[in-house]
Amino acid sequence: MRVMTRAAGLLLMLLTGASAAPAREVVGWIEMTTVYPGAITFEAKLDTGADNTSFNASDIERFEREGQEWVRFRVENKAGESTVLERPIVRTARIKRHYGGQQERPVISLGICIDRIYKEVPVNLVDRTGFKYRLLIGRSYLAGDFLIDSGARHTAQPACSVAAAQ
Prior knowledge:
- By secondary structure, this protein is mainly beta.
- It has a single domain, classed as Cathepsin D, subunit A, domain 1 (Beta Barrel).
- It contains two helices and eleven strands.
- The strands form two sheets. A six-stranded mixed beta barrel has the order 1-2-10-3-9-8. The chain has a three-stranded antiparallel beta sheet with strand order 4-5-6, with no helix packed on it.
- The longest helix is centred in the N-terminal third of the chain and has 15 residues, at 2-16.
- Mean pLDDT is 84; it is low at 1-13.
């Protein structure tokens, strides 16, 4: 009976044009992204195994502004474009390292554009110079909007409107 009900529901969706899930962008595991503020393009690894997004930052300096903790840091893409950003700290993340230690990282909010989808998400700042990709995008950004094709790379270019990204 249960199988018959499920099959009838699927048939009804097909006949009426309804879909079981909202449309999602299919992208590769490596994509070009634009990060805001700054509108700098980065090649990013889309990692469904990571909860959160991590961003390579150097010269990380915490400071206080109007009673709130902020962070100043430098980002640079592979093309050598760099900028210094200042953002309020949302929280501090404690990351368990695979070798057993812990690391504290400042978490800020950044806008990220992949294809035509712009989202502001929490991003932890860390020195990723030893990694191939300076930006690792986790499920907090990907969930609900993207399906990852693990055999594809560079399937989309960032195309968010500047107004949406401000």
